[in-house]
Amino acid sequence: MQEKEKIIILLSILIISVFTAVSFHKKLYQEELPLTREESLKSTHAQQVIAAKKRIDINKAGRYTLTKLPGIGPKFAERIIDYRNRNNGFTSKEQLLDIKGIGIKKYEAIKDRIKVDVSE
Prior knowledge:
By secondary structure, the chain is mainly alpha-helical. It is elongated, with a radius of gyration of 22 Å. The chain starts with a helix and ends in a 5-residue tail after the last strand. It folds into two domains: 33 residues; 79 residues, DNA polymerase, domain 1 (Orthogonal Bundle), CATH 1.10.150. 56% of the residues lie in helices and 3% in strands. It has six helices and two strands; from the N terminus they run αααβαααβ. The longest helix is centred in the first third of the chain and has 28 residues.
């Protein structure tokens, strides 16, 4: 095999490897991306019912999981986790109202999507 052919084969392998890695990365992390407001509004009623049944335990949820709640971005998620850590967890959902920036309106939007498990 000539030197030129070897270079072409190596470049082809490199290009295929890069495309495969990018494709794998997209598939791997696609599920972890939070929905945008527009995507949330596009969800069907059935998806909303399923999501409502999958309640998030605010005593165990991480930052990313908390951002799946409507109106809860990374900053609010951090506040929720900070409050939880300072107070040894939540004993009721209503304690979210003690967190700066979470008022009645935001609480009403998420109260049916959360739960508080005090066992353990």
